[in-house]
Design goal:
The structure holds 4 protein chains of 4 kinds. Chain A is α/β, with parallel strands linked by helices. Chain A is built from 9 helices and 14 strands. Chain A has a 6-stranded parallel β-sheet, with helices on both faces. Chain A has a 4-stranded parallel β-sheet with strand order 7-6-8-9, sandwiched between helices. Chain A is elongated, with a radius of gyration of 20 Å. The two termini of chain A are 35 Å apart. Chain B contains 13 helices and 4 strands. The longest helix of chain B is centred in the last third of the chain and has 27 residues. By secondary structure, chain C is α/β, with parallel strands linked by helices. Chain C folds into 3 domains: 236 residues, Rossmann fold (3-Layer(aba) Sandwich), CATH 3.40.50; 172 residues, Rossmann fold; 67 residues, no CATH class. A 6-stranded mixed β-sheet of chain C has the order 6-7-8-3-9-10, sandwiched between helices. In chain D, 73% of the residues lie in helices and 0% in strands. Chain D is built from 15 helices and no strands. Classes of the chains: A alpha/beta, B mainly alpha, C alpha/beta, D mainly alpha. The interface between A and D is large, with 40 and 38 residues. The complex binds adenosine-5'-triphosphate (2 copies) and magnesium ion (2 copies). One magnesium ion binds next to helix 9 of chain C. The site of one magnesium ion (MG) has 4 residues of chain C, from helix 1.
Chain lengths: 310, 332, 500, 328
């Protein structure tokens, strides 16, 4: 039969993170021989992806892979796509609480591990004691909130972190200006602040800029989730000693293999089923038809950062 | 005191009355119509998937809410004011509705409360413009920020859902193949066209737009009418907000973000004069469909969104140039 | 006499409407040349062409014998031609001083603005004209008359060779007119040419050497002012003999229609009390800025007063909006026609029927046929000059627009009419018609309050003359005792200039 | 005379600024520190610079809604030059950005004057148009921090005097220049005149078209400067978010600063105070620990409040005026 056609709809255009995710799709499709296109809205607001989903359905694509801007606003339009035989995969973020409206989800890591990982990383930087704060994205960003919940849990229950005191959680709405002001306010309001965790790419970059401007790199430690390109200069000049993320590229690769396999019947979309992906090894379909590209977060620091470019 | 022996005076500045076909054809709406036809032809040639009425109608439902508000906005702009806050009013009244529903209020009452909120917000705008006499363009930029902020205070960043089935997916219910929102939009356009074109009330809106002071002197209740228009904006926005909520089956504070630009674009594309006193509902109706065709056509042809922005911009400017040119002609 | 400016075959059409036809005209240095003509005769249009505001459709203009192309006001200015516009133009947000120099100051784009010198010159200029305005205050808020004086001042200050004055005296007081004329004569004696447009013959006789008469866009005649009698002039202007106005006689004065008691608005007028009876014409005189318009606007509800009562036919009335006033049978022809009167881009019929929605739309829906007939016979009755009742009213000349506004109010069949400067800038022929109409309206038992700055008008028409000065009512003079002297003495502020 | 003093909206603004500082200071003493001053001053330069341009446009009875997109375009162009031609000196990128801003501004002006169209709609169109161009020229690719020259970024960190960062000094220098230009040059006054009465301006031999073009070009160029400042302050340029919604903030600041939306009225001092006021509110909220939700709500409320205050002050001023009689 003719080649499987896959479209990927990122949150919005011009976001470097999704550029590398796309690259993964392209390379995988080049080897698998599937047709790959991408269509992205200009802004990342809840509903901006809807017309694109409809249009792609109308174009008769076989697979829609999407990084949803909203956990539920897309339900109806996605259902319609699936009624018309389109395979719908959530990539990089899931429809939290609405998993029934997509066929499967490809997530980078087991998000339960992100929170503790971050806490441990910051702890190791500040000697496991002192005031710390969190600079997040928006107040109800589902992923960030999962992670923050896990962080609070770890701080509260793991004696290892007993001396680390969380003094504030603020939200920069993933907007550079706002994140910057929030970070500045943190530094001023909490003179004894030892560390900041910012589990969002915009936030961690803004915070790094602020700490650098205030020249507080040695008193206030910063870590979080960021892209190497975004963080490179701050790692180089020592503002940030280490931060974490995963490989968006691999998400693209995995999504492409899974989609094609499913369409060709070589993969069954059942919890517990496994399949092989070159370079990624054996992938197991877990709870809610979720699968991860990697077991642990990748930690970037002065040694390895130049090995990455995304 | 009439003097029959007078030679009919004033012949010297008797202008040749414009031929009827000109009066009918040389109007901004005509331009919009031509653009619409052109757009359809282009879109059909851009992508084989476009020419499918069912699909176009389905996609159109994403614009009907804005279209609905744009119809009322047309009256506001003709009266010489402008309202940039409708998108924010949509969000806030929808958030009020959803929060109340979530708090356990029967959905019927919640909907009423939502509409009432819209009316109140519109009244607030009216108060600022009519009573405090702030320039509407800047005042509504203020309320735009305020209302959007309040909806965020109310709903945070989470999205509220879980509405009963009957409430959801109004855009999916159809008469024949025509979705409810499309029907509603069309009926509203008809009603407002009659109101504006054939009633005293409509005439007075034009008079206010041409010269507010003269209108007041002629006994037009300027304040009352303007206030009424702003309230109408609020109510319509609230209804549009409910429609959106039904379509998305969920409500978030960022509902319809940036919608105000789309609405103004529709009114302008429809050939309504930004300084008031001229224009009509028909044009806005056509312009709404023009936007539907362009956006849908480009999406289904996989034209990158960035060049869509460029096209929209050029379109707006082009339409204004045409509109003004035409008014310049008919101004004489 | 050498021609400074000579126009040859000048014609002008607006969108196919020829408003100026093949005009030849010579203006000599050292003369004051009057332009006379009915409303819409083309006086302002000719003036604007010479001043570079409009381009002629055809024809040439020569300056000192050499043909010139006056393509813009900038060029006109560089050629030494200045125009005092019929409607004073001003920049409300700039200071009076700046308004005086604006556009005349030399230098490049970044040339420095000499504030001190500017203010000094402005003060000097104002003293010469005997005008007491603080030159550092913004133009906004100046009465139309004050704005007119500033306009005149800047024209005089520019050392132009040709100064065109388009109805400069329309809103001026007698002594302001006198000052203006003294200066005009001095300029003439300096060898400049002056064009003077006015509808007041006595002024023309007082000031001018030669007169040119326009009718229907064509030049009818140019002659030395002495060579023509008033009657001859008027006949040439309106193409028919004109009979003098007679005061209405034998009209029974009825009961009190409008009664004002203690009307006051802060900053405008205080404690105004008077009444107007059915069939009575009550005049209201005073200097420009005395507060008459403000009082009228207060009565009609445009800007309601702070305190005081209004009674209509003995019943106390609350008027918060003009619509309330109209419902009570009041009508108001405002002074500022262009702003408060017409809907410029709307059709004449829409303008005429604006105040009677009920008549054209019984059940809310407009009946175009009814509207058209109503408008059409109003146009016939008031002899309004136009091409079609569907034509935008902005295309009519000032006088004809004014007639349309009056027509609008006659539609409402009012029992009380307030007319604020109804004949400002209106030619003799039409004026006479207006006087007749006002008389007839009174005869029909309507009460009329006539605000006017033209004393002869007040004396000729009114049964009583009220006089205002600095926001207060200073006199109530019965017709029998009314004289120019009595009115003026009541109009001039007791402590002249105390409030300056 | 007290009335005249009250009529000056600058006074009203100073009072409001003092009030905010006082109230916030009482609730959160840490607010009244030099550090706050640093943050506030850092928060305003972009807005101040753009506001100077916007102010002139509004004074001429126009408005430029496209400055946000222009800012984005200038910033991305500068960023791409830094990234793709690292051998060139930084100044080249900076100048290029300003030039781009000027060109886009000029384009606005040309459309407005040639077809004499309402600028608010034209720029509403170019707002979308220019944003599209930002994506097109950048290929929707962000310019990452590593490419932004250190020297540029240090502009918002290092300082020649009193620890006031460079970009702040530059911003105020620009404001000062604008003040001199508007108050003391022929063109400056003509801008006021055009805004005060556009119809009459040509009758007073004011060349409206060139002046209008100049004003739009300048506004664009200043938006370009703000674009460079954006790169300097945030250290990277993203085509999607850079300058989005910026126009509303700037217009708000200008109007809060007392510039009449109908043109002809407004002072540089007022606008500067307006910018400082908004900047202060922005900084005060997070320091008070006000939830992120509340920020835009309060922001909007403050704008409206300022408009109302300004309005009432103006009425009092007008009343004081009409009392003064003219001719005797
Ligand atoms: N801008 C214009 N567009 C169209 N018609 C015009 C315009 N200006 C003047 N007219 C017409 O030209 C004719 C002459 O007008 P003009 O103002 O010259 O008359 P006028 O002699 O000054 O009358 P008045 O004494 O009332 O000022 C009028 O009939 C008027 O309708
Ligand atoms: N066009 C105007 N704009 C603003 N204020 C005005 C205007 N005209 C008059 N005023 C103010 O109102 C005061 C009263 O003016 P008003 O016009 O009522 O006097 P008036 O006796 O009617 O004079 P006029 O003969 O000009 O009608 C004036 O002193 C002036 O300060
Ligand atoms: Mg005239
Ligand atoms: Mg008056």
């Amino acid at each position: 039969q003719d080649a499987v056609s896959i479209v990927y709809i990122p949150k919005n255009t011009g976001n470097p993170y999704f550029d590398s995710l796309e690259a993964g799709f392209r390379d995988a499709c080049a080897s698998l021989g599937c047709e790959f296109t991408t269509a992205a809205p200009a802004t990342a607001e809840a509903t901006s992806q809807i017309p694109f989903i409809t249009a792609q359905t109308q174009r008769g694509v076989d697979v829609i892979t999407i990084s949803p801007n909203s956990p539920d606003a897309l339900n109806q339009v996605l259902d319609r796509a699936r009624e018309r035989g389109v395979l719908v995969l959530a990539v990089n973020g899931d429809l939290v609480g609405n998993e029934t409206h997509r066929d499967a989800a490809i997530l980078p890591v087991d998000f339960k591990k992100t929170g503790p990982g971050q806490v441990e990383l910051l702890g190791s930087m500040i000697g496991y004691e002192g005031e710390i704060a969190i600079l997040s994205a928006t107040t109800d960003a589902p992923d960030q909130n999962t992670w923050i919940a896990a962080m609070l849990d770890t701080l509260a229950n793991d004696p290892k972190y007993a001396k680390m005191k969380l003094v504030a959680t603020v939200y920069g709405d993933d907007d550079p200006q706002k994140s910057t002001t929030e970070a500045e306010a943190l530094l001023q309001t909490y003179p004894d602040l030892k560390g900041i965790i910012s589990p969002t790419t915009v936030g961690v970059a803004a915070a790094a800029q602020v700490i650098q401007s205030a020249g507080k790199a040695d008193t206030v430690k910063l870590t979080g989730l960021g892209t190497p390109n975004q963080m490179r200069p701050f790692v180089k000049d020592g503002t940030v000693s280490a931060f974490q993320l995963w490989s968006p590229y691999n998400e693209g690769v995995l999504a492409a293999h899974f989609a094609v396999g499913l369409k060709n019947g070589t993969i069954r979309n059942e919890v517990g089923a496994t399949f092989e992906v070159p370079d990624l090894g054996t992938i197991t379909i877990g709870e809610n038809n979720v699968m991860n590209t990697q077991a642990e977060l990748t930690t970037f620091d002065a040694e390895n950062i130049d090995a990455f470019n995304f | 005191m009439t003097d029959a022996s007078l030679p009919a005076p004033g012949v010297q500045n008797a202008a040749p009355a414009r031929p009827r076909w000109q009066v009918l054809l040389v109007r901004p709406e005509t331009g919009t119509l031509l653009l619409l036809v052109g757009a359809i032809i282009v879109a059909a040639n851009l992508s084989p998937f476009f020419s499918d009425l069912r699909f176009i109608l389905e996609s159109s439902t994403y614009y009907m809410e804005f279209g609905l508000v744009a119809l009322v906005l047309t009256l506001v702009i003709i009266s010489g004011e402008i309202d940039l806050s409708p998108a924010a009013m949509m969000a806030l009244s929808a958030c009020v509705f959803a929060s109340l529903f979530q708090a356990g209020l029967p959905i019927g009452l919640a909907m009423v409360a939502g509409v009432a909120t819209g009316a109140a917000l519109g009244a607030f705008n009216g108060f600022l413009v009519v009573v405090l006499q702030l320039p509407s363009i800047i005042a509504t930029i203020g309320t735009l920020t305020l209302f959007r902020g309040l909806s965020q205070v109310l709903a945070g960043d989470r999205s509220i859902s879980g509405f009963p089935a009957w409430f959801m997916g109004i855009d999916w219910r159809t008469v024949g193949i025509v979705p409810y929102p499309v029907i509603g939009f069309t009926l509203a356009a008809l009603a407002l066209a009659v109101l504006l074109g054939m009633t005293v009330w409509g005439r007075q809106i034009y008079q206010i737009g041409v010269s507010e002071i003269a209108a007041r002197h002629a006994g037009v209740r300027v304040r009352r009418i303007k206030f009424g228009l702003f309230v109408a904006m609020g109510v319509t926005s609230a209804l549009a907000g409910l429609l959106t909520a039904s379509r998305l089956a969920s409500v978030r504070y960022d509902m319809a973000t940036g919608g105000e630009l789309q609405m103004v674009l529709m009114v302008m594309l429809g050939g309504t004069y930004i300084f008031g006193g001229r224009g009509g509902v028909l044009g806005t109706f056509l312009a709404a469909w023009l936007l539907v065709i362009i956006a849908t056509g480009m999406n289904v042809a996989n034209i990158v969104v960035t060049s869509q922005l460029v096209v929209m911009g050029l379109l707006l400017i082009g339409s204004i140039i045409a509109t003004n040119a035409i008014y310049a002609r008919t101004q004489r | 006499m050498t021609a400074l400016v000579s126009a040859r075959g000048v014609s002008k059409s607006f969108a196919g409407v020829e408003v100026l036809r093949d005009v030849d005209l010579d203006l000599a240095a050292g003369e004051v040349h009057a332009l006379l003509g009915e409303n819409g005769a083309g006086k302002s249009t000719f003036a604007r062409i010479v001043a570079g505001v409009h381009r002629p459709t055809s024809g040439t203009i020569a300056l000192g014998g050499a043909p010139v192309d006056i393509a813009s006001p900038v060029i006109a200015q560089s050629l030494g031609i200045t125009l005092i516009h019929q409607e004073p133009i001003s920049f409300p947000d700039l200071s009076v001083a700046e308004n005086l120099v604006l556009g005349r100051s030399a230098g490049g784009p970044l040339a420095r603005v000499p504030w001190a010198a500017m203010t000094r010159d402005a003060r000097r200029l104002m003293d010469v004209l005997g005008v007491r305005i603080d030159v550092t205050r913004p133009m906004r808020g100046l009465s139309i008359a004050d704005q007119q004086m500033v306009e005149i001042a800047r024209a005089l200050a520019s050392d132009a060779r040709l100064i065109i004055m388009d109805e400069p005296t329309a809103s001026l007081t007698p002594n302001e007119v006198a000052t203006l004329f003294t200066i005009a004569r001095r300029l003439r004696d300096e060898g400049r040419a002056i064009v003077f447009i006015s509808h007041r013959l006595e002024e023309v006789r007082d000031l001018c050497d030669r007169v040119t008469i326009f009718r229907d866009g064509a030049r009818v005649e140019t002659a030395a002012i002495g060579a023509l009698s008033d009657a001859e002039i008027i006949r040439r202007m309106i193409g028919r003999p004109h009979q003098d106005y007679m005061h209405k006689t034998g009209v029974a004065i009825g009961g009190v229609a409008l009664k004002i008691t203690g009307l006051t608005r802060r900053g405008a007028f205080a404690d105004i009390s008077f009444d107007v009876r059915h069939g009575e014409i009550v005049g209201m005189g005073g200097l420009v800025g005395a507060g008459r318009t403000d009082v009228a606007r207060a009565i009609f509800g445009v800007e309601p007063a702070d305190s005081g009562t209004i009674e209509i036919d003995g019943k106390p009335a609350t008027i918060r909006e003009p619509s309330d006033a109209i419902a009570l049978g009041l009508a108001f022809v405002p002074e500022d026609r262009a702003v408060a009167g017409i809907f410029r881009s709307l059709s004449v019929e829409a303008n005429i029927t604006a105040a009677v929605p009920g008549k054209i739309a019984p059940r809310g829906f407009i009946r175009r046929a009814v509207e058209k007939t109503l408008a059409a016979d109003a146009v016939k009755r008031l002899r309004i000059r136009l091409a079609s009742v569907r034509q935008p009213i902005g295309e009519l000349s000032g006088g004809n627009q004014q007639k349309a506004i009056l027509a609008r109010w006659l539609m409402t069949d009012p029992s009380v009419l307030i007319l604020d400067e109804p004949t400002r800038g209106i030619d003799i022929g039409v004026k006479a018609e207006f006087y007749d109409m006002i008389g007839d309206l009174a005869a029909q038992g309507r009460a009329i309050l006539l605000i006017s700055s033209e004393l002869p008008e007040l004396l000729a028409l009114c049964d009583r003359v009220l006089v205002m000065s600095e926001g207060r009512l200073t006199a109530d003079i019965p017709r029998s005792e009314a004289t120019q002297e009595r009115i003026m003495s009541a109009a001039v502020p007791a402590s002249a200039g105390a409030a300056a | 005379m007290i009335g005249a003093l009250l009529a000056r909206r600058e006074v009203g603004l100073i009072v409001m600024i003092a009030l905010v500082a006082l109230v916030v200071g009482l609730i959160e003493p840490r607010f009244l520190t030099a550090e706050t001053l640093r943050i506030v001053t850092l928060a305003i330069p972009l807005i101040l610079v753009a506001a100077m341009g916007q102010m002139m446009v509004i004074l001429a009875r126009h408005v430029d809604l496209s400055i946000g997109a222009i800012l984005g375009f200038a910033a991305i162009v500068a960023g791409m030059i830094f990234r793709d031609m690292p051998q060139l000196p930084t100044i080249v990128g900076v100048l290029a950005a300003i030039a781009c801003g000027a060109v886009l501004g000029l384009a606005n002006g040309l459309v407005v004057t040639t077809f004499n169209l309402p600028s608010i709609i034209v720029t509403l169109g170019t707002l979308s148009l220019y944003r599209g161009l930002v994506f097109l020229v950048s290929g929707s690719k962000q310019v990452d921090p590593q490419f932004i020259p250190r020297g540029l970024i240090s502009m918002s960190q290092t300082s020649p005097i009193f620890g006031i960062p460079w970009i702040v000094l530059i911003a105020f220098a620009i404001a000062l220049a604008t003040w001199a230009f508007l108050g003391y040059t022929r063109t400056g006054r003509q801008i006021y005149a055009i805004g005060s009465n556009p119809v009459a301006a040509p009758l007073r031999s004011i060349r409206v078209t060139p002046v209008t073009l100049f004003v739009f070009t300048l506004s664009g160029a200043l938006a370009g400067v703000a674009g460079v400042m954006y790169a300097a302050r945030f250290g990277y340029v993203n085509p999607g978010i850079t300058g989005v919604g910026f126009e509303f903030i700037v217009i708000a600041a200008v109007v809060v600063g007392g510039v009449s939306i109908n043109g002809g009225v407004g002072s540089v001092l007022g606008v500067t105070l307006g910018v400082i006021f908004l900047g202060m509110v922005n900084v005060a909220l997070p320091i008070l620990g006000v939830s992120a939700f509340w920020q835009s709500a309060i922001y909007g409320a403050v704008i409206l409040l300022a408009l109302v205050v300004d309005r009432t002050v103006r009425i009092r001023g007008a009343a004081a005026l009409t009392l003064s009689r003219g001719t005797a």
